């Protein structure tokens, strides 16, 4: 699921008991509260709050689907057999069939027949697996000694077998626990008492981004922002930014969780999800997956066509349009993206981004009021101009998942740690 969909699904199911995943919840709700006049279209805002996944069609085939997956749509002609599968959020309307002179295109949906839900979807239905408490997955075919080492078992005294039935409620509880706990299975099955209102984060460096930074084909684009820092606490209070930085932030909501793990080299600091991702990476293509391309899709997922702006910082990849679009692309146009794909926010305009990624239009009067409410003197703040490139963008992404001070931890502290120390 994309990050924006994860927040939506959890809030829909748990309401006020939704766990805080870093500042992702705050960020998502600030986008929801942002006035529609800030967006090019109302549809662009809705797409951010409920982003499409390239796995939506797959998820509809699951026995229990908690992803709130979108219905797969297609365009068809009422006069001929022309049919164009719609895997795009960018091309959302069509003018004519292109196959016949009088054709009229209508939008239909493709629903999965319950009777077609046979076999596996991702994992091979001939392989069984063992799942550890922290969501490491290993095939049951490995030896008992190796399994004991993985589970750190030295004494089997007191071991007990339990049969557990998983329904929709249990799957949702496991989903929630996997995002905030190091022991999600114990939390669920053994009813361990735990207040699941925030993610458990281990202290870890924010700087393990080496292989991505060395890629010669990456976009070298830099975004400029003005950061207002509280000198006494060394906290970044807010950033004054242009719409290009807001576009970058909004793009984070569309990234699938597997894509986040790929970008951060499975070091997001959400331990259970890191383990799950590494387990999928270690499984064998032919033996453990339903098809040869499933593994690559899971560990390096693509975004639906139309989500990524041409000026995007992160090395994200879009799905290709199907062959049926070739030579007919002029028939398609976009209602939601009149300014081009991946362009959500209107500009030119200045915005204020708080440390917890709350986004609001920038007004100087509200800044003074905010400083006054926090009892912060103007003499105790300083303005710093900062550059945000790939390295900083990835750091902000990681911080957004694991802390409620994404700009301080993901940007200010990172830049400060790289500056040479002054000699005394």
Characterize the structure shown.
This protein has 424 residues and is of the alpha+beta class. The protein has one domain. Helix content is 33%, strand content 13%. The protein is built from 16 helices and 12 strands. The protein has helices at residues 3-14, 24-33, 42-49, 56-59, 144-151, 168-180, 184-189, 210-213, 243-252, 257-263, 271-282, 285-288, 294-299, 364-373, 390-402, 406-418, and strands at 72-77, 83-86, 93-94, 105-110, 129-131, 137-139, 223-230, 235-241, 332-333, 351-354, 359-361, 381-388. It has a 5-stranded antiparallel β-sheet. Strands 2-1-4 form a 3-stranded antiparallel β-sheet, with no helix packed on it. A two-stranded antiparallel ribbon has the order 3-9. Strand 7 and strand 8 (235-241) form a beta hairpin. It is globular. The mean pLDDT is 83.
Quick structural overview:
With 424 residues, this protein is an alpha+beta fold. It has helices at residues 3-14, 24-33, 42-49, 56-59, 144-151, 168-180, 184-189, 210-213, 243-252, 257-263, 271-282, 285-288, 294-299, 364-373, 390-402, 406-418; strands at 72-77, 83-86, 93-94, 105-110, 129-131, 137-139, 223-230, 235-241, 332-333, 351-354, 359-361, 381-388.
The domain tally reads: 1
- Extended strand count: 12
The number of helical elements comes to: 16
Helix coverage percent of residues?
25-40%
Main β-sheet, in a few words? 5 strands, antiparallel
Proportion of beta-strand residues: 5-15%
Q: Alpha-carbon distance between the termini?
A: 51 Å
Oligomer category: single chain
Structural class: alpha+beta
Computed over alpha carbons, the radius of gyration is 24 Å
Side-by-side strand order of the widest sheet: 11-10-8-7-12
Unreliable parts: none
